[in-house]
User: Which sequence fits this backbone?
């Protein structure tokens, strides 16, 4: 197939990278290892399922000038899909393909540092712009011809021409999880470690490396995987199943195939526990760039000895420096751990142009329907803790304000936003300003739940909903075990949000093997007030612990659909309400795929041991009460409702109040 998409250029579409000259392809692919000809060739040959691939080539006088690497993400594929990235477990809870964007023609690959659109670097700006536009048109036209959604993955902020062309072509933009880059500017690993700003991070790196060694852990480069393929594949399979990911798309012979085909351009490393393989990494090298393509650990066998960190971070950096690589690229997740180790986050964008309508659901829709029905009944409606449009979804304001008589807001920024939209708004302040106080003896309260007042305490607060318990209990309890192994005198308090959750939480505790845990139904803040650190789900509880002045690690896991939507519509940089109100990262946050036992434990240990950091956090939290308004929030809210009550003799209009989704 050919046409004339750009001046003096013809378009040719081939279905296999083997039909493209390797030297010509690598010339325009630059330093991106994931888009090298060799890696794409092995990916094609070893993929378990048949996948339709398309390589759109723009050529001038037989010379390759630009190209787009695409594949078809079809219904029925078992490997990770675009739907998995967007919708996650929600796919299995809805009938049919209600929320599917598949089949899709996807340009690029997940977790690549750069899109699948390649243009020769030696061309001038005007020509590069023209060819970029031609590639976007070619992919869009091909997707339309196939009646498929057009998707562009892994577009970086540096690809300004491509982003402009995609937006101009009607694609929707969403910022995805960043990729992390470390420039390897040191003569050895010890020089890298000493260059890090944080003294506690430098100490932690040494401690984790030494602990892994003391426990019998070693890491080696694997020149030939023959004889180990089955075990390496079992490690990857167990890692994928542990985190609920889609099936690993390659078979056991993949390890031998990539090493055979790419030689020194692929680095296989294996972690051994007493000479038994418990972890594996696969890194791709090209022109001085090393990208970590895969890191998996058999968590059941490695024994909590920081094998993951030693493999992914410490060994990868040390081996890259020894090999003379200039930069080291790792995928998304673990933001705090990586930035504190010198990694630079690179924003990644996804662009999607659906072929059909994608239905959206929102609890705010049902609140608005209820408000409209009450209004038709001549019942005045008030929102107390209204939909939090000041955080996300400001487009809802024109739909919400006409339905309510008055908005009672707990936050000043929210009140101002509703007031500017024309709502009768009363800033009541937040009722937690009055209710968060210690009203009984903490020592007696600790003894009542089976805890020792003389021992240090950490609180675990995995949330109030069953899905939060299911997703956050395992990493929180895993982090608690790591902390207890490091400091055996630690004990833990786990307040129940509701009694029906007790059985499920106690089941998680039994499975974790954590000891010295007090599970209780709180009647006051006495027990919580004695906690030195809190590991907690984001939500109202973050305000409670902040008002008590306790440093905490705020964590939240969500399905990929929620993450994708949040990236589109959120107006704030943080997920914890104390950080949002204070306008800075005071309490550390872990979000989405960043939430795991090792990173939670690392943050909690820093809060436990870094006295300067603890005092700084407490100092900033002391400003929070004033941001929540003066005492008497509930009284002001009640007075605002009473003002709208009709006269006693009138029965034409009855009062009602709708509690919004922000409650």
Assistant:
């Amino acid at each position: 197939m050919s046409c004339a998409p750009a001046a003096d250029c013809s378009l040719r579409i081939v279905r296999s990278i083997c039909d493209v000259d390797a030297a010509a392809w690598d010339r325009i692919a630059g330093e991106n290892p994931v888009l090298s000809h060799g890696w794409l060739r092995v990916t094609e040959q070893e993929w378990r399922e048949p996948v339709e691939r398309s390589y759109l080539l723009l050529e001038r006088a037989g010379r390759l000038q630009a190209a787009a690497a695409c594949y078809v993400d079809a219904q029925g594929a078992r490997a990770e899909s675009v739907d998995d990235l967007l919708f996650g477990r929600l796919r299995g809870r809805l009938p049919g393909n209600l929320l599917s964007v598949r089949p899709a023609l996807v340009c690029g690959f997940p977790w690549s540092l750069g899109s699948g659109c390649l243009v020769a670097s030696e061309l001038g700006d005007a020509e590069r712009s023209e060819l970029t536009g031609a590639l976007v048109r070619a992919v869009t036209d091909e997707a339309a011809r196939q009646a498929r959604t057009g998707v562009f993955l892994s577009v970086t902020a540096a690809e300004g021409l491509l982003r402009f062309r995609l937006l101009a072509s009607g694609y929707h933009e969403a910022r995805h999880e960043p990729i992390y880059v470390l420039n390897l500017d040191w003569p050895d690993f010890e020089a890298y470690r000493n260059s890090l700003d944080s003294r506690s991070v430098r100490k932690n790196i040494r401690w984790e490396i030494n602990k892994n060694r003391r426990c019998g852990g070693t890491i080696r480069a694997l020149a030939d995987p023959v004889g180990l393929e089955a075990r390496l594949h079992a490690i990857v399979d167990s890692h994928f199943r542990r985190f609920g990911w889609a099936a690993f798309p390659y078979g056991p012979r993949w390890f031998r195939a990539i090493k055979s085909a790419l030689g020194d351009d692929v680095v296989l490393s294996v972690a051994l526990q007493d000479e038994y393989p418990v972890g594996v990494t696969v890194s791709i090298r090209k022109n001085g760039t090393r990208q970590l393509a895969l890191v998996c650990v058999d968590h059941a066998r490695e024994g909590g000895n920081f094998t993951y960190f030693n493999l992914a971070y410490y060994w990868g950096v040390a081996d890259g420096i020894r090999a003379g690589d200039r930069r080291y690229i790792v995928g998304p997740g673990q933001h705090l751990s990586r930035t504190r180790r010198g990694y630079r986050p690179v924003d990644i964008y996804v662009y999607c142009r659906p072929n059909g309508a994608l239905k959206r659901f929102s609890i705010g829709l049902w609140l608005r329907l209820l408000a409209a029905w009450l209004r038709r009944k001549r019942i005045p409606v008030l929102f107390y803790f209204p939909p939090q449009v000041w955080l996300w979804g400001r487009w809802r304001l024109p739909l919400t304000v006409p339905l309510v008589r008055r908005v009672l807001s707990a936050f000043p920024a929210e009140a101002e936003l509703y007031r500017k939209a024309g709502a009768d708004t009363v800033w009541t302040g937040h009722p937690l300003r009055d209710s968060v106080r210690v009203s009984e003896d903490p020592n007696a309260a600790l003894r009542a739940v089976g805890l020792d007042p003389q021992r240090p305490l950490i609180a675990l607060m995995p949330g109030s909903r069953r899905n939060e318990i299911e997703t956050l209990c395992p990493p929180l309890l895993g982090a608690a075990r790591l902390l207890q192994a490091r400091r055996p005198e630690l004990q833990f308090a786990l307040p129940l949000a509701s009694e029906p959750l007790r059985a499920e939480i106690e089941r998680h505790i039994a499975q974790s093997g954590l000891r010295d845990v007090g599970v209780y139904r709180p009647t006051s803040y006495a027990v919580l007030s004695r906690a030195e650190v809190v590991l907690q789900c984001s939500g109202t509880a973050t305000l409670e612990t902040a008002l008590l002045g306790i440093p905490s690690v705020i964590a939240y896991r969500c399905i990929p659909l929620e993450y994708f939507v949040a990236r589109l519509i959120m107006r704030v940089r943080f997920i914890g309400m104390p950080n949002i109100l204070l306008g800075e990262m005071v309490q550390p946050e872990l979000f989405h795929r960043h939430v795991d036992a090792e990173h939670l434990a690392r943050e909690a240990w820093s809060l436990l041991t870094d006295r300067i950091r603890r005092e700084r956090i407490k100092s900033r939290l002391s400003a929070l009460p004033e941001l929540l308004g003066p005492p008497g929030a509930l009284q002001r809210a009640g007075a605002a409702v009473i003002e709208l009550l009709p006269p006693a003799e009138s029965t034409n209009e009855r009062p009602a109040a709708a509690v919004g989704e922000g409650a």
Q: What stands out?
A: The longest helix spans residues 125-145. The chain is about 40% helix and 20% strand. The radius of gyration is 28 Å.
